[in-house]
Amino acid sequence: MxxxxxxxxxxxxxxxxxxxxxxxxxxxxxxxxxxxxxxxRFVPHxxxxxxxxxxxMPNHELQWYAPLWERDLKQPPLPPTVAEPSEExxxxxxxxxxxxxTFVEPRASYAHLIDSQGKVHLKxxxxxxxxxxxxxxxxxxxxxxxxxxxxxxAMPEPxxx
Length: 161
What we know:
This protein is an alpha+beta fold and 161 residues long. It has helices at 4-35, 44-55; strands spanning 98-104, 109-114, 120-123, 128-129, 132-138, 141-146, 149-154.
């Protein structure tokens, strides 16, 4: 059974807890407000000068980057497609590996290639197959290098039945 003195003690404890909450909540909000990071002031010439020096990357104009609504968000960002090889890149000597399939993922790209003995290999960029180094993997085609020769290998078209 609860006595009158127990009720008075519990009531006093609840009043103290309520008072502490009334003081602690605004104080914690004030502390959080005072310690939050303030946004940096935008100074274009400083950012432009430091970004080129710090990263070593070329500083492209804003038009170089495609707007978000023009990008295919299902595909990973690919570098601009290289023009077809000119007369400076001769076809590589020997049998060129055949391409079965490509898998282009955000973190890595893979290609299923058939070597000169007819064996299937799964290769990524910079792997070597029959003295051919894989330079690039794009959806449906692979760029291979053998010595000085660079060649694009595309997947074969499906046959009509």
